[in-house]
Design a protein that fits this description.
This protein is an alpha/beta fold. The protein is built from 5 helices and 7 strands; from the N terminus they run E-H-E-H-E-E-H-H-E-H-E-E. It has one domain (3-141): Rossmann fold (3-Layer(aba) Sandwich), CATH 3.40.50.300. It has a 7-stranded mixed beta sheet, covered by helices on one side.
Length: 149
């Protein structure tokens, strides 16, 4: 199922993420794509909050240098940032397969850099783009039927 949402603020983007996170069941891989400043990290903050990882939503940052941040809530959350990865081999070396199990959610920022490595799995793709300085277009493709906006 494909979904579309227009966010008019960072708070709305976080709120959308929270709604998505509250509906996740585990085993999902979410690939986030969009230019710098499009709201990927804000959306992830909301997803983490929706997964009831208490006390972490304000601490969620892009793991640009450490590559993977882990949060524990209703499900285990693995937040991967592919921005600095130079190859699919580097992505595989961080242990992506180990993060994918029924009790986890894997969130990948800059997923367009490694998309060929996940093409064989069923993943949710979220594309964010700038409409203007404060508004974002958020398109979700391949969303499972239990995700409602």
């Amino acid at each position: 199922m494909d979904l579309r949402f227009t966010s008019y603020s960072a708070d709305e983007t976080i709120g959308l993420g929270q709604k998505i996170g509250s509906q996740l069941k585990g085993g999902e891989v979410i690939a986030l794509v969009g230019p710098l400043g499009s709201g990927k990290t804000h959306l992830i903050k909301g997803i983490v909050k929706g997964l009831e990882a208490e006390g972490t939503a304000n601490e969620v940052t892009s793991p640009t240098f450490v590559l993977v941040n882990e949060y524990t809530g209703r499900l285990d959350v693995f937040h991967i940032d592919a921005y600095r990865l130079d190859s699919i081999a580097q992505f595989e070396q961080i242990g992506f397969d180990d993060y994918c199990y029924p009790g986890s959610v894997v969130l990948i920022e800059w997923a367009d850099k490694i998309e060929s490595a996940i093409v064989g799995i069923n993943y949710i793709k979220i594309e964010l783009s700038h409409l203007n300085p404060t508004s974002r277009d958020i398109r979700i493709t391949s969303a499972p039927g239990y995700i409602r906006l």
